[in-house]
Structure formats: structure tokens, C-alpha cells
Amino acid sequence: MNVELIARIIGAVFFAFVAWRLGFAVTSEAQPIYRYIVRWLGETGVVFLPYAFGVVGGFLGLLFTPHITTRPFFWIRGKVRQLPMQTLVAAAIGLVIALIISALLALPLSVLPTPLGEILPLVVAMFFSYLGVMVMVTREKEIFGFLGVRLFKDKGSRKDKEETVLLDTSVIIDGRIADISQTGFIHGTIVIPRFVLNELQHIADSADVLRRNRGRRGLDMLNKLQKESSAPIRISDVDVPDAREVDSKLVRLAKDLACPIITNDYNLNRVAELQGVKVLNINELANAVKTVVLPGETITVSVIQEGKELGQGVGYLDDGTMVVIEDGRRFIDQSLEVTVTRVLQTVAGRMIFAQLTNRR
């Protein structure tokens, strides 16, 4: 039995009792309206009227109790959970200061002529409470800094940023993050938001075969990551209800936590950088750690296919760098020693052009 159902039952009983008592009060012979009720309903109707009140009150309680009890409570609790602790403390301090000022002003205001003496103390208390909370919340850093109070770590500090990293959907599906996490290069906790996990599950359940395979690969990689990663893995239930898209939620969450996002999504990379969020791009990392070769060096490569130009052969280094070999077509499925003639950096990655070291 959930909380809302319990609240409905309690509310139905409470309102039924209150309405039942109200029915007895209305049908009391001392009430001026009693004779009109008797004339309209008769003596029998007067007897059953309180019970009719009780039934109506119980129905209304059953229907509306969650709207005035549990639902506002859960809504407020959700909003409070999203607020940083320093904001809550600042709001509480502002409220206390405002109530003290209101209490000091209440006595002189209460001696004013009626109705000002009765209304103004309440109005002033509400005004100063709102003003105190808003001033403290909006200027919390400046006020705490002016007073020399260091209650909380600066969430923009470098240490906090390095303690947590967020993963997006594309980098989990890519799979290379599982291997990187085993090397120890990632410090702190790897956080996977629940909405990213939900998107992975949605992709895995897609009717499209390609999307379904990508989603299942992502779930497999996530399972591997949890089992083999040297860094702690945590699934976070923190959500950003104001944002609809997963990328927007991720950027907002990264800003709130002051931590970087690990991704290989170009669009997410650009959007995050524009909003001041640090991005760790797996593709940039892969390009940075590729084998460095210079013209004139000799390397060994296996020719696996023919190139676009006549007589060219194509092979790949262990890191995936393409090597185009002049006159290498006739050596397909063989390993050759070649001499690097030129290195070309393209948008797709690095390409190496080479020629046979010992021409046959």
C-alpha cells in the first residue's frame, strides 16, 4: 500500500468525521435554519442529514487529500534535494534575520490604529522574510566571502572537478572507455546518470536492428565497466527536470556538479564548451596517443587491401592509422618493411604515405 493511498484513506475518515459533526451542528434545534430544514426534508430527513454530510465529506477527502498533503510534500522535497547545501543554509540564515527584524518592528506597528495595527505586523513579517531569503540566496558567495566564512568548498575548484566525471550515452556505446578505465588514467568516481541509463535501455529496445544492437552493446560495455574498472562506478538518480533532452540534462548536471563530461559526440562537445563545461573527448585522446612517425622512418605493416590509386596498397598500424604504400598492391596479405615519405593529418585522422624499403 503506497503513501498516497494511505493518505486518501486517512483523509476520507477525517473529512467524513468533520462533515458528520458539521451535519449535527446544522440540524441542531438551536440553529435558526433548523425549521427550514425540517420543512424541506421532514423529521426523517433531519435524522439522516448528518450521515449524508459524512458520506460527502468522506468522498471529498478520498478525492482531494493527496493534493493538499502528499503531493505538495513530495514536490517540495524534490526541489529541496536539488538545492546545494550552502543555498539552504543561506536561506535559513536570511529567514532567521528577517524574523528577528519583523519581531522588533511588530511592537511599534501593533499600536497603530485599527486595522493597520492588526495587518501591518503580518505584512511586514512576510515582506522581510521574502527579502531576507532572496538576498542571502542570490548573494551567498559574496556575503560569506565578505564575512570570511568558508563553510563549503568552492564547487568550481579543480579538486572537485577531478573527483567526478560524467559519462554520456555515446561514449558508453563506443566501448573504449572500459579499456581506458582499467589503465588508471581516470581519477575519482565515474558517474552515470539514471537518465543516460534509461536512454541506453530505450535504444536497446528499439525496433530498428542497428539501434537495438548499439543499445545492447552499450549495456554490455556498462556491465564490463562496472566489473573491471579501476575507478569507482556510481549510478546517480539525480535528474534535471527542467531539461528534456539527455544532452541538455547532462550539461546542466555537469555545471551543477562542476565536473567534466567524457564523450565522443561532436555536438555535445561543442554545446558543453559553449556553456563553460569541461569535456574529455575520447576521439581526441585516441588521436593524441597514436604512433608518432616521421618521414624517413622505417615501419613494418601488413598490406590488407588495394588503394584508390593504381598500384597502391593499404595497411593499418596497431592504433588504426592508415598507411598507403606505393606499389604495394601486389603484396596484399603480406607484411612489408616500408619507409615513411609523408604524414598527413586529416579531419578523419592521421594518414601515412610510404614506399617499399627494398623494392622487389
Molecular structure report:
Helix 1 packs antiparallel against helix 2 (34-68) and helix 4 (85-110) packs antiparallel against helix 5. This protein has helices at residues 3-26, 34-68, 70-82, 85-110, 116-138, 140-146, 158-163, 169-174, 176-183, 194-204, 209-228, 246-257, 266-274, 282-288; strands at 164-167, 189-193, 233-236, 261-263, 279-281, 298-306, 313-316, 322-326, 335-346, 349-356. The chain is elongated, with a radius of gyration of 35 Å. The protein has 360 residues and is of the alpha/beta class. The chain has four domains: 3-73, no CATH class; 83-146, no CATH class; 158-287, 3-Layer(aba) Sandwich (Rossmann fold), CATH 3.40.50; 298-356, OB fold (Dihydrolipoamide Acetyltransferase, E2P).
Could you write a compact summary of the structure shown?
With 360 residues, the protein is α/β, with parallel strands linked by helices. 57% of the residues lie in helices and 16% in strands.
- Taken from the alpha-carbon principal axes, the silhouette is elongated
- What is the assembly state of the chains in this entry? single chain
Terminal residue distance:
83 Å
Average pLDDT, all residues: 83
Tally of separate domains: 4
State Rg. 35 Å
Main beta sheet strand tally, sense and closure: 5 strands, parallel
Which regions have little confidence, pLDDT < 50, spanning 5+ residues? 152-162
**What is the CATH topology classification name of the largest domain?**
Rossmann fold
What share of residues is helical? 55-70%
The total count of helices amounts to: 14
* Order of strands, widest sheet: 3-2-1-4-5
